Amino acid sequence: MCLEKLFHGPLTVCLMKNHIYLIIGFCLLAMLVAGSQLPAAAAPKAQFTPFPTPTPGPDGRIIYLALENDSAWRIAAIFGLSLDELRTLNKWGENPIIAPGDQVLLGFAGPADSNPTPGPTSTPTPSAPTPTLQSGSGKLCVILFDDLNGDAYRQEEEISIPGGAISITDRSGDVSKTADTESGTEYQCYEELPEGNYNVSVAVPDGYNPTTVMNYALRLKAGDTTLLPFGAQKNTVAIAEAPVPRGTGKSPMFGIIGALFLVSAFGLAIFAGRMARKTR
After folding, report:
1. What is the architecture of the domain spanning 61-108?
2. CB of 215 within 8 A of CB of 65?
3. Measured CA distances, 108 to 2, 81, 91 (Å)
4. In the predicted structure, residue 249 carries a pLDDT above the cut 80
5. Among 75, 137, 148, 276, whose CB has the most other CB atoms within 10 angstroms?
6. Domain limits of the chain?
7. What pLDDT does 96 receive?
8. Model-level pTM greater than 0.90?
């Protein structure tokens, strides 16, 4: 239809209409291409936090130190006990109130006391005195790592979180050590600790949620080196307030549209030049 108007009207009117059609077509094409490249958000996978069973004490009792928000039902579910069993072991009533730091009896690793029936004894043969064994020492190493994927296991790229608090105490009350967690990739180690039963706990800094149990009881033997990783992950508020790095968060749509406009302008210029030659 435009070719017919070349012989009945001005050439500029026809060229302007062709320009408008081409611009509209390129804009629609750019919008379709940009829309097809938008990524789809994937739902995060559910994470599971393991709870290790505390080490039995010298008397055979297995003790768990209650954490914040712990309840009788939650502790029973974590360690595979029925609520009635947990009530019986701890001599609780119907609705016990559990505070952080309370000792909860989970069971016995073996009989705490043994009373065998005495039998006939023979006169012991005197023996040479044996030297008294001297107790040795061991080493405890602790790290509070940034659990980026929330799987409660430390990967090589997950570094230490600064600003947390470490507490190491033994049951006899002779050892009590506290320190702040530091940034880096190495464990914070405490050497020359006398062998015995220890309780190690870590507190996370503000803006983080723990992904592992934060209190651990263990038996440290002479010559042992024990590594204790504790994990934490930024909560949703901290993630939302984190600054967006430069160069991210920009859509490539504007660059695509600009490139398409340049191509369309170049094509229109060629088309206008050819039309001008035909009218001469």
Report:
1. Roll (3.10)
2. yes
3. 96, 13, 15
4. no
5. 75
6. 2-36+255-279, 61-108, 136-234
7. 87
8. no
Query: Residue 241 belongs to what H/E stretch?
Result: helix 236-241
Provide the token pair at 174.
């002779």
CB 211 within 8 A of CB 230: no
CA–CA separation, 137 vs 126, rounded Å? 33
Domain 136-234 class? Answer: mainly beta
State yes or no: pLDDT of 187 exceeds 80.
yes
Cα dist. 86→60, 64, 80, 104 in Å?
Answer: 17, 12, 10, 8
Q: What is the tens place of the pLDDT at every residue in 53-73?
A: 677 878 888 888 889 888 888
Q: How far is it, in rounded angstroms, from Cα 245 to Cα 265?
A: 35
Q: Is the dihedral of CA 200, 206, 212, 213 positive or negative?
A: positive
pLDDT digits (tens, 9 = 90+) for 99-139: 898 988 888 876 544 455 565 666 666 666 655 445 789 99
Q: Which helix (H) or strand (E) covers residue 237, if one does?
A: helix 236-241
